[in-house]
Amino acid sequence: MTDIIDENEPTRRDFLYITTAVFGATGAATLAWPLIHQLNPDASVSALSSVEADISSIPEGGSLKVAWRGKPVFIRRRTKEEILIAENEDAANLPHPEKDAERVKNKEWLVVVGVCTHLGCIPIADKGDFGGWFCPCHGSHYDISGRIRKGPAPTNLEVPPYEFVNESIIKIG
Amino acid sequence: MNHDYEYTPSNGFTKWLDKRLPLMRFADENMLSFPTPKNLNYFWTFGFILTLSLVTQIITGIVLAMHYTPHVLMAFDSIEHIMRDVNYGWLIRYIHANGASMFFLAVFIHMFRSLYYGSYKEPREILWILGVVIFLLMIITAFMGYVLVWGQMSFWGATVITNLVATIPVVGESILTLLLGGFSVDNPTLNRFFSLHYLLPFVIFGVVILHIWALHVTGNNNPTGISVKDSNDTISFHPYYTVKDLFAYIVFLLMFSYFIFYNPNILGHPDNYIEADAMVTPAHIVPEWYLLPFYAILRAVPDKLMGVLLMFGSIAVLFFLPWLDTMKVRSARYRPVYKIFYFTFLISCLLLGYLGGQAPEGIYLFLSRVCTIYYFAFFLVVMPLLSRYEKPSAMPIGISNPAIDTSIEIDEVDGDLVPSANT
Ligand code: HEM
Ligand code: FES
Known about the structure:
The structure holds 2 protein chains of 2 kinds. By secondary structure, chain A is of the alpha+beta class. Chain A has helices at 12-37, 43-46, 80-88, 100-103, and strands at 51-54, 63-68, 71-77, 109-113, 124-125, 131-135, 140-143, 148-150, 162-164, 169-172. Chain B has 15 helices and 6 strands. Chain B has 2 domains: 36-284, Cytochrome Bc1 Complex, Chain C (Up-down Bundle), CATH 1.20.810.10; 286-393 and 407-423, Helix Hairpins, CATH 1.10.287.980. The complex binds protoporphyrin IX containing FE (HEM) and FE2/S2 (inorganic) cluster.
């Protein structure tokens, strides 16, 4: 029998090498995932918590800060003038255009996550050039609809999922 | 390097050992008889100081970990417990906290030394790159260590810095959650930071070994930047440099002691003695002093993603230094124009450090922008242009021969050293 060995033809040894490598890589990837995924929020953290807040005692122009998922949520009862200003400024030159109406369920109540969309500081109420909030960390100004107006933050303050359970209770989350 | 000298074991035991594990030979060749340029100045003592700084951090850190509790409800109290109850706890903590500052002070001097004398140039590129890797690891380690205190600055510094990750388009938010182990900085974050803060110094230790290995392959640069030619140019490391390094270290320790014993909190921020509160941001968030220049760069740009990119870019650009500055003449001593730009760069970095601590508005913001532009222009514009057009001044023949070298001429076009036509 004359066997002509073709140099380019894969050999049985190549097959063994490739099989070993594939098994090794699959095994490593299977093990890597638990090692990475353990870093993600655990069951106790991600059990999507919701909080309820009593808003009946907030006067007009007043606000409440509640903790939700380790972050503050601002609940603000806006005055008539503030609502008017927020709506008028829909037409202003907004870095992140959103109408005031899209950001509230009830004009009187503004509910936003009190975390600056720049790098996560908590903005201070009734400060800044636009009558809303001012973030002291790197100077972001938000208006009375929680919209970014000036400074490094790229987007408006986030509106969390919420609902009014009844006249005086609001449920966030 | 030329090794005309060879280690000879002196007694029966060392002869026996040398055939099995040549430990003494290794120590002798690398620490005692290692041929070192004879003209090194005090800027060359900082490598030694850095090595001991790392050892200091590791020893004090291991001891602190014996008394510290990485849990949000107990971390802050356990720090106070170390300060008040643990025997000499205050001393160990003050050494560790101020030691980090001293470590950074030394590494900045060490890096600016390399920048001045062209120590990053051929053949020391790998040595330099390993140095930048160490620097990056040091920043990450120090940042995580500061979070462990769980004071207001710890918490808000961690929040602001981890939020940088969220600027990565599309996947940023998911990576941030993965990093924090939650939706905000909380107990899982503190736990993993503790684990990593313990680990990373040992990783740094490993990279330092590679760094020194690379140093011992190429040998030291020296203030003239001229390569060592023969054994006339070198002296043995011991006793000449062991004693010089030790002397410098003692002076360094004197300054270090001033901070530990007389002013232990001056380099920190008082707000970090207030326990972390996720509902209240301090009026001014500032990082530790050694990160201020990078913080100033971050805030110099009004755009979030750009700011983050520039901040990381300011360190990333260091990796490319050996290929940005291709001038063959290493030392700034013979580069009159580079010298001017170098000192401007030094001042601009110090200024960035100052600006990083100020509110980002008005004149401060303007100056931050100017300095940021100069920071990048220095590496990306000045260096390549000078490599091409600068005419170096006359150089001595060698480390041991101060006579002006006429056998080489400097090619006016690209600064290459070429044999002169009249020899
Ligand atoms: C933990 C931190 C570090 C340690 C322990 C360390 C240690 C050392 C030691 C012992 C030397 C030799 C003595 C000397 O020239 O001073 C050295 C040289 C050197 N290091 Fe580092 N180093 C560290 C960080 C860095 C960093 C961050 C850089 C730059 C980014 C760097 C760049 C260099 C260069 C270029 C040399 C060669 C200098 C020369 O001999 O001219 N090192 N290092
Ligand atoms: S975190 Fe609010 S401006 Fe940067």
